[in-house]
Predict the structure.
Amino acid sequence: MQSYDNMKTAVDKVRRGKRRDVNKRFKAMVSHFLFEAEFCNPAAGWEKGQVEKNVRDSRYRIWHKAPSFKTLADLNTWLEQRCKELWKEIPHPEEPSRMVADVWEDERKQLMAVPAPFDGYVEHTKRVSSTCLILCDRNRYSVPAAFANKPVSVRAYARRIVVVAEAQIVAEHTRVFSRHHKNAGKTVYDWRHYLAVIQRKPGALRNGAPFTELPTAFKRLQRILLKRLGGDREMANILALVLHHDEHLVMQAVEVALESGRPSQQHVTNVLGRLLEGPLPEPLKPPPALALVHEPIANTQRYDNLRENIHVR
């Protein structure tokens, strides 16, 4: 039995008594780890007073002299190590003669093996806007243009946002957290999601917000091509190669074309074709029995003889 507060990620609606409309994803987690969840009564602080007291004490022990961190991953690594150190210093509440770490070592031997990791996320159904964006926690994330104005499933993980449509993942972004509720949020683009759009409207490459994050090689090529007549169409066609070929190979082809000093769509396509062919095979080594005794002589004069009138019918 495990007690929980009536948090929104677990309870959709609090009903009379102990009845709850439990979130589907929370039910899936309970079934995955094989335990029974029980929820506290609303506004009944005495039911979890001991827990909140322990949280307050732990907060002081852990964070009182905590250093600063550059990333969330660094913070979590430090926090794990700090908690393990405190377990060796804090007496167990039911066995004061032993530390928490000692009791934990005895208890872990009796625990079940950890099952496969649970795919934990909060799921929402969203409709993609006409500008190929979905809204999640006041922030906007791009989705492939093929799903504009269509419903999709948005899975919010702790660190990423995953968009699912037609039973497959169609987009994935690093999750953005806004510090203030008053701001309008951020927009996270993936330029690959708009490649179908620039095929119809290549002029969008000039001022389109999604294309400000192009890789460096593509940006260099864009600056050169957009100075030419029809350069926006050439650039759109080059970017569209990413839809059919490995992006790293396309990037390599662009870099080779840039080194020539006169890059073009045809040049990039030709270089990409050579890269896709792969290296030439090694020459064959025939057995000695098949070795030529008399090497053939390259005699081009015999072709001139065919041009004489006696050979023409």
Q: What stands out?
A: The chain has a mean pLDDT of 87. The longest strand covers residues 168-174. Residues 6 and 39 are 6 Å apart (CA to CA).
